Amino acid sequence: MAELAQVPLLPAAQVAQEARVQQAQNGVCYASYGETQISAEDLERIVNAVPSSVAKALTQRAYYFVPLTLGEQDETTVAPKYTVDLGDRAICHRNFRFGGSECIFISTRLMQDRFALAFEYFINVGHHFVDSVGVPAEFSELVWSQAKADVRGETSQDAWESRRKATERIDGDREPDEKAKSSYFESAFSDAMAIYMLSLTLDFDYSELREREYTLIAAPSLAERLRLVAKLFPPNAGYEFEIRYRRRG
Question: N or C: which end of the chain has fewer CB within 10 A?
Answer without folding.
Answer: C
